[in-house]
Structures are given as structure tokens and as C-alpha cells.
Amino acid sequence: MNQTELFFPQATALARAPLMARPPAPRPEPEREARPEPAPQFDDAQVVPRAAYTVRLADCPHPTPEAIKVSEQRFRRELDRQLGDDVLAALSAFHNASESSESDLSKSEIAMAKRWAKAYDAARTAGFRDLGDTNEAFFDVRPAIR
Asked: Is the pLDDT score of 63 beyond 80?
């Protein structure tokens, strides 16, 4: 055994292996006539409008408008993630629940109001993440005026 066999055992084994015939190269397929693909048609696509609402950070002593804008965007993104398209329905159910007694509400309205409270809390936490001391600040959510 020499050094090559010791350090490179596969290389020497391959060198001693008998040469095998190579398989024939695959034949190229005859060229087909290149047809342009038709352009996609979007005429029948339905656009689902998103719920339109505004978010405003109120009573925040923070000096920079950029920080407030980022905070409002974070709040809205988290609210959309938590509630999806049910933001306005949940907001309405929450207002109804806060102004009515529990016996006047349906079970679905109560459940939707609870979803709003949970989603608002998560969104508020996300919105206030980098603002620091915001004791009296809050996010005001209202349906957009059309």
C-alpha cells in the first residue's frame, strides 16, 4: 500500500476499474413549433373589497409624526391579522355590547365583541411597542366615510 492508496482509496480503485462503455447520449427531441401562450384573462375575477376603516393614535405625547405613523400601521396590521375581514363587524358588535345589556344581544354578537376585545388588545400591544411611556394614549378606530 502506498500513500495514494492510503489517503485516496477511491481514486486508486477507480483507476484500476475496467473502463465501461458509456451509455448512448439521448437523442434530442425534434423541435416543436413555439406557440405563444395566451395572456391570462382577468375579466371574470372578482375583487373582494377590504373593510375600510381609519386608525388614529390619540393623546400621544410622542414628538415625531413618523413614529406615530409607524405605530398606527403596526396596530392596523395586527388588527387585520387577528380579525381579517370582520374588523367592522367586530367593532359594531363591541359598540352594541357596550351600549346594551347581555340579554339584548345574540350569542354571535357576544362572541364577535369578545373577538374585538382580544384583537384590540393584541393590536394595541403591537402599536405601542416602540413608543415608550404612553399612559393616556389610545388608538381610535372608526369606519371610513365614503
From this structure: no
Q: Among 25-39, 107-121, 130-144, which is the least confidently predicted range?
A: 25-39
Q: How far is CA 94 from CA 9, 16, 22, 110, 119, in A?
A: 76, 82, 76, 8, 11
Give the separation between CA 114 and CA 86, rounded to whole angstroms.
13
Which one has a higher pLDDT value, 68 or 25? Answer: 68
CA distances from 82 to 20, 52, 89, 95 (A): 64, 16, 13, 18
Question: Can you give the pTM of this predicted structure?
Answer: 0.62
Where residue 59 falls (left for φ over 0; alpha for ψ -120 to 50; beta otherwise) is left
